C-alpha cells in the first residue's frame, strides 16, 4: 500500500506527531524536555507559527500548530526541532545516529469541530498512558499553561478557545471541565486514525472542502461526530 502523502493547509491547525527512532526514548533527563521546549519557543517565533497545544512523551512528541501562508514553515520547524535535539543528545551521550523516525506524521484539523478535541487528545496522552492521574500533574504538556496553573509567554490561544466564554477565567473553567469530564470520545478515534495515516481530522464536508481548496484528492472516510466543546 502506498504511503499517504503529508498535506499542509495554510490557515488551519495541524496535529503533528514525531516518534523516536524505533520508538526508543527521546527524553530521559529533565534537561532533554527543557531543551526541546526552548527550541519550540524559539523556532515557532522565527517561522511565525502559532502553537496551541503540545505534549512531550518519553518517546514521541505531539504538537498542534497553526499553519501560516508559508507551507514550508512547519516542515522547517520540525527539521530544526529534530536536528537540534539530535545534536544535543548525541553530544551529551557521546553517540551518533538518528534520534527520530525519518518522517513525522501530520493531520490538518477542522478548526470549528475538532481543534479543542485534538488539544484535549494531546494533553491527555500522559493520563491515557497511566503516567499521571490528571492532566495537570504532567509537567511536559501545555495543559497547565492553558488553564492558568503555569505561566507561559509563548503558548498561543486559538479562536476556538476564546469562543468558549466571554472572559478568560470562564474560558479556563470551560476548558478544564471539557478535559476533565472526558471519558472516551468518538472524536478520539478519528483523531488517532487521522494522525496515524496523515489524513484530515474532520468529517466528509471538511475533506471535500480541503480537496477543492488544495486540488489534491484525500481518501474519503466516514464522517465523525465530535463531542461538545463547551
TrEMBL record:
Gene3D superfamilies xref list: Transposase IS200-like
Domain of life: Bacteria
Residue stretches spanning the membrane: none
Transposase IS200-like domain span: 9-125
InterPro entries cross-referenced by the UniProt entry: Transposase_17 (IPR002686), Transposase_17_sf (IPR036515)
One Pfam family, short name: Y1_Tnp
Protein name: Transposase
